[in-house]
Amino acid sequence: MKKKLQGIPLKQLKSDLMKRSSFRHAYNNLETEFQIADQMIAARLKRKISQKELAKRAHTGQAAISRLENMNTKPSIAFLKRIARALDTKFNITIQ
Q: Does 7 fall in a domain?
């Protein structure tokens, strides 16, 4: 009989991993990318649209949306603005 895998909530996993200095350093170096991906995913899910539908609205391919959400790309500001428009939301950059 196969054992069922027990998952842990993402917040708990992040909290546990942040206790490791090497993970914390890498995470902090990618914080901006995480925030962009997280906000884009949240906006897409809030509107209940698929990556494919978002890609259609943004005149791009689904693979480009997937790469953005999985942080496998360094998107241009123009691309991020296009995605924001397709999500009917605003794109803002704040430098602090």
A: no
Task: Say how far apart CA 19 and CA 15 lie, in whole Å.
Answer: 7
CA quadruple 72, 77, 78, 84: dihedral sign: positive
Q: How many domains does the chain have?
A: 1
27-35: long-range contacts (C-beta < 8 A, 24 or more apart)? Answer: 30/71, 33/71, 34/71
Q: Is residue 22 scored above 80 in pLDDT?
A: yes
Confidence (pLDDT) at 47: 95
Owning domain of residue 74: 21-86
Length of the chain as a residue count: 96
What gap in Å lies between CA 54 and CA 8, rounded to an integer? 29
- Tens digit of each residue's pLDDT (9 = 90 or more) over 55-68: 999 999 999 999 99
